[in-house]
Specification:
With 137 residues, the chain is mostly helical. The chain contains five helices and two strands; from the N terminus they run αββαααα.
């Protein structure tokens, strides 16, 4: 991490919202460069590297966290002992069926993946396929 970035911690930054309103925000953390296979890099198009709280998102008019049509926020669930991923998938499908508009109900597919397996399954299982191919050599 550069000296410049490390020095930003605790400083304020003034940011303008999409509506033109300005507000000061306190920098409370600075991350080192994260690897591409990190869960932080779920969305290839989202490369701004700024993490904001729900309250801050409201300032930008991006506060639809509670709406079912917000497909861009990953969720993390810790399963109780004895709960299988297939049980979770059934519960998620039931929630989607009861709470989403028809378009989302038809097109949204949730695939729970263990955090320890994410990097192997990402990009259609590319790493898993490469490891398999290399093991044949």
């Amino acid at each position: 991490m550069s000296y410049k970035l490390a020095n930003a911690l605790g400083k304020s930054i003034n940011i303008q919202s999409f509506s033109g309103e300005k507000h000061d925000f306190l920098i409370t953390g600075v991350l080192q460069k994260l690897p591409q296979n990190s869960v932080i890099n779920l969305l290839e198009d989202d490369t701004n590297g700024i993490f904001i709280s729900n309250n801050t998102a409201r300032f930008f008019g991006r506060d639809n966290f509670e709406q079912w049509n917000n497909l861009n926020i990953p969720s993390y669930i810790e399963l109780r002992d004895g709960v299988k991923i297939s049980d979770l998938e059934k519960a998620i499908q039931s929630l989607i069926s009861k709470n989403t508009p028809a378009f989302i109900k038809t097109n949204l597919k949730i695939e729970p993946i263990a955090l320890t397996e994410y990097h192997l399954q990402k990009d259609n299982g590319l790493i898993n396929k490469m490891l398999f191919a290399l093991s044949l050599i």
